[in-house]
Design brief:
The chain contains 14 helices and 29 strands. The chain is an alpha/beta fold and 655 residues long. It is elongated, with a radius of gyration of 27 Å. The two termini are 31 Å apart.
């Protein structure tokens, strides 16, 4: 049988599609490129299309032709788009394949499909033809999503690495499957009252210890935990439980694995050719060419894909700072200035703006979050006023200052009061998320609990104080898995979390604290309605260096206030005076020193009646018992919590 009998010349592209692709404006390329089950002339098979403009020849190899490179050659389109395409009859779902690309230098490359929906488990590298008929059950969630993710809504994220959250007890120390996580992880996140889960990259990656940040299959969920329908089932389960799903997205770099995007058609197709712009010194990986139209279309299509096909509620964009600056992690002579002589990567900046514009245009109820560590202005401001257009930005300065402060022995804290208060100087310049992420518990930094000073009681009291301060501070919240129960060792992806610790009092107390903090955050509008607005925060006193005590109020739109008192020393202070604005009574609604959290139970059990005398510039004051190493919250009323039932989903069959 000759080649023309084995590959039929057909297309899924219109002239309009091609023009959009060439101009970098086709944002649903996954509907055209890649492998697609279809019928041609009454024959069922698979249509293949791949962008390889500099290739001399492109063939499809797979388990259907014994990986023979000469039998199933694709056709190059006549329109100079660089797309090779063709239809191969009689292929089915589950077919293994790659592209055999002959370069102009007569090299023969074997490449995975950049648009593959599924892939073999590493170390195998083949792409897999995949389509499924998964029936989503989250119609109500999707319809109500805008109410869950607006700026004036509670937003607390549990950051999780799917492969190491929990391991099976067997000789292989296996990770849980997507199906198992839909039962166990969803129930756990729901129990702890988080509003969202943020998954470290789930896209296909060949090297497990990369944590998912070295992606080769941008359109395929990792096959280590199951198939794409099973990943949809996991997302669906979170939505049925009322929990939003954020995905880590990595447009900043990609690995140079032989089967991946690098040197794809024998040229630097996806990446810059000049290593001063195309190679990342930190991660030893390639950098996308953001100035190339087709590459921008590839990346934005990928973002839209996860939102549309997998119902992701948002994307957290990794390493944005490395994209913004041409001299990021580079010495003089190792980078090329932009056309104006500056160090800003103008092409990357334009790409990020367009990415955000497209995501919000198509999914206005979604959210994009930037991991950005510099003072670049306007990261979370709209593009029409010159911003990058992200919905939120990680508040890295808060994280560094706060961890430094809590890492100090308490006898020195009175000299560092400004460290813990400085974040409020700039807290409302962006829509900030407060991150205590995976990066803070690896690479020799130690676990959060072991960075706290003092004896065992003080360590746990400090950790309770740290978490409570985070939840009282303006901004959304993010906490990495294991920290919520005081994991004692650094995160290790091979062993999973130390779940046995939750059997011990202090660790169980931390876990209970996080559960209650999430509930407090969700139930009190003062803590979230103005979390990005300076009108929602007011200092009472930040100057009591001697006692290391802070006091402030959080406000909602109606003007209601919660009073927050922070004692960062291991000393009990009775009858501590706090200025208040009215004669209304105050009642303690939260105290991190409560016995159920492992504290000394120095609580304010009675309602507090103000005395009419000016204090802290306010006409009244109350006297509170400030528990050691604790955060206390006072309000006039406490809201009741409602519980939503988790519906069971029918498990998808493998296909």
């Amino acid at each position: 049988m000759n080649q023309t009998e084995q590959v039929l010349h057909t297309t899924r592209f219109s002239e309009y599609d091609i023009n959009l692709f060439k101009s970098g404006k086709h944002f649903k390329l996954y509907e055209k490129l890649g492998s697609h089950l279809m019928k041609v002339d009454g024959k069922t098979g698979v249509y293949f299309a791949v962008w390889a403009p500099n290739a001399k020849k492109v063939s499809v190899i797979g388990n259907f032709n014994s990986w023979e490179k000469s039998t199933h050659t694709l056709y190059a389109r006549w329109d100079h788009s660089g797309i090779w395409e063709g239809f191969i009859p009689d292929l089915e779902n589950g077919t293994l394949y790659k592209y055999a690309i002959e370069t102009t230098k007569n090299q023969l490359l074997e490449k995975a499909d950049p648009f593959a929906r599924f892939a073999e488990q590493p170390p195998n590298q083949a792409s897999i033809v995949w389509e499924d008929d998964y029936k989503w059950k989250d119609k109500k969630w999707m319809a109500d999503r805008k109410k869950k993710q607006g700026h004036a809504q509670p937003f607390s994220c549990y950051e999780v690495h799917l492969g190491s959250w929990k391991k099976k007890i067997n000789e292989w120390n296996q990770s849980l499957s997507y199906i198992e996580m839909a039962d166990q992880l969803v129930a756990y996140v729901k129990e702890l009252n988080f509003t969202h889960v943020e998954m470290m990259p789930v896209m296909e990656h060949p090297y497990f210890p990369s944590w998912g940040y070295q992606i080769t299959g941008y359109f395929a969920p990792s096959s280590l935990f199951g198939n794409p329908a099973e990943f949809k089932y996991l997302v669906d389960a979170f939505h049925e439980a009322g929990i939003g799903v954020l995905l880590d997205w990595v447009p900043s770099h990609f690995p140079e694995d032989a089967h991946g995007l690098a040197y794809f058609d024998g040229t630097h197709l996806f990446e810059h050719e000049d290593p001063r712009k195309g190679f990342h010194p930190d991660w030893k990986s390639a950098i996308f060419n953001y100035g190339r139209n087709e590459v921008r279309a590839f990346l934005i299509s990928n973002a839209i894909f996860w939102m549309e096909q997998y119902h992701a509620d948002g994307l957290r964009v990794d390493a944005v700072a490395s994209m913004l600056y041409l001299d990021y992690s580079r010495e003089d002579g190792e980078w090329i200035p932009n056309q104006y002589g500056g160090n800003e990567n103008l092409e990357a900046i334009a790409f990020l703006r367009e990415f955000n514009e497209q995501v919000y245009a198509q999914f206005p109820d979604a959210v994009t979050i930037a991991e950005e560590s510099t003072s670049f202005a306007g990261v979370s401001k709209p593009t029409y006023v010159g911003g990058l257009g992200f919905g939120q930005k990680w508040m890295m300065g808060w994280m560094h200052d706060t961890l430094d402060y809590f890492g100090k022995e308490t006898i020195y804290r009175s000299y560092h009061q400004n460290d813990i208060t400085f974040s409020l100087v700039y807290a409302f310049t962006e829509n900030f998320m407060l991150p205590l992420s995976h990066d803070e518990v690896v690479h020799g930094k130690g676990s959060l609990i072991n960075r706290m000073p003092g004896d065992e009681w003080q360590k746990f009291a400090n950790l309770r104080c740290l978490f409570s301060y985070m939840y009282m501070h303006p901004g959304t919240k993010l906490l990495f898995m294991g920290s919520e129960f005081g994991q004692t060792t650094e995160w290790n992806i091979e062993t999973g979390l130390e779940w046995y610790l939750t059997e011990f009092k202090f660790h169980k107390g931390i876990q209970t604290l996080i559960k209650d903090l999430n509930a407090l955050y969700k139930e009190n509008t003062e803590l979230y309605e103005k979390q990005f607005d300076h009108d929602g925060f007011e200092w009472i006193d930040y100057s009591d260096h001697k006692n290391s005590v802070l006091s402030f109020v959080r406000k909602d739109h109606a003007g209601n206030e919660l009073l927050v008192v922070c004692n960062f020393l291991p000393t009990l202070i009775n009858d501590y005076k706090i200025g208040v604005a009215s004669k209304s009574k105050w009642k303690e609604i939260f105290n991190s020193d409560a016995e159920k959290y492992g504290g000394s139970n120095q609580l304010n059990t009675e309602s507090l009646s103000p005395t009419k005398e000016e204090w802290h510039g306010r006409p009244y004051y109350i006297e509170v018992k400030t528990a050691p190493l604790s955060i206390m919250v006072f309000g006039s009323t406490a809201k009741k919590k409602t519980k939503a039932k988790v519906k069971k989903l029918a498990k998808p069959s493998k296909k």
